[in-house]
Amino acid sequence: MKPAHPRILTINGGSSTIKFALFEASDSLRSILEGAIERIGRPEASLRVKGIDQADTFSRPVAAPDHGAAVHTLMDWLEGRAEGEPMTAVGHRLVHGGAKFSQPLRITAEVLMELHRLSPFAPDHLPEEIQLAEAFQRRFPDLPQVACFDTAFHHDLPRVAQLLPIPRRYEGQGVRRYGFHGLSYAFLMGELERLAGREAARGRVILAHLGSGASLAAVQNNQSMDTSMSFTPAAGVPMSTRSGDLDPGLFGYLARTEGMEAKKFNEMVNFESGLIGVSETSSDMRDLLERETLDVRAAEAVSLFCYQVKKWIGGFAAALGGLDTLVFAGGIGENAPEVRARICDGLGFLGIGLETARNAGNERVISAPAGPVVVRVIHTDEERVIAESVCSVLGLVSLKEH
After folding, report:
1. What are the chain's domains?
2. Which are the catalytic amino acids?
3. pTM of the predicted model over 0.85
């Protein structure tokens, strides 16, 4: 039976998680459920779902030794619940679109071939994401799928922001600043316009997506002007397990002193650094805030994170020639008032000042009423952007603005 309205499944694959959401589209998108298969590759892997129906709200252990097994578990569950209400299309978050892909597009055999060619650009993410799309294609060959690229928002960065200061010949191989978290940034800019108006969205805006992965973007006239992540998502500010920016000479030092090879260095900067590397106890900001009065390593990890984010805000304000709006988003940005306060402390010279009670209450606007810079907290929604893109690419419905 064909559903009354299109139903769009969104897939967001990570290194150890597959997040998903199901939307129903009419003149707007209605969220039906969201969930994840978590801890892929570990014995305690689980399928967690939260839906509008009680039957779609549960958490249970599953066998998910790898992404292949995990996606088959997900597809089996989706088939079991979809009787009478089949999916219309699937949208996938793809971490990297390279220089070629700057807009969402339908996944075809040719697109998959190009994505395989791009895999060296994001070897820790793209192979698994491609595997998810191919698994859905085999199970549901008539189901249209759409790729949504996390680099697309930054595709047209100004030339000076794209360039990396290395031999020019590498640019011909596609080596440039790409930037990531683009789906989140696209949503945040849409929400900023909805909440504050077109003039605010076209002003000088800094977006701070602070979660387990963290980055910032400088935006003006609704166009990305610069972003902290670069050729890979490991660049920029320290993150849960990623280092952020490092002296490139460090690799040579570790190669000489420890015999470290490129693969091990990549593992270190992506999975053993950042908050977990400095604290030696946890990659979760919540744990570190709880422990910082008792453990100097936790305190230093928090301080380093806040300090580096503050520096990027200052640098981007300089690049923009001033600042009108600062937006915090992501798990840390939306839920850690203490972190926001420490980041903004000392930025009064830019016009940034927080109202303590508003910040503590995680209100939408947390800046002081008379301050020249409006500081906002906006809940980001990458899955909704994916679903909207699917509707647009496939011409399913004409959506009102979220």
Report:
1. 7-149 (3.30.420.40), 196-377 (3.30.420.40)
2. 150
3. yes
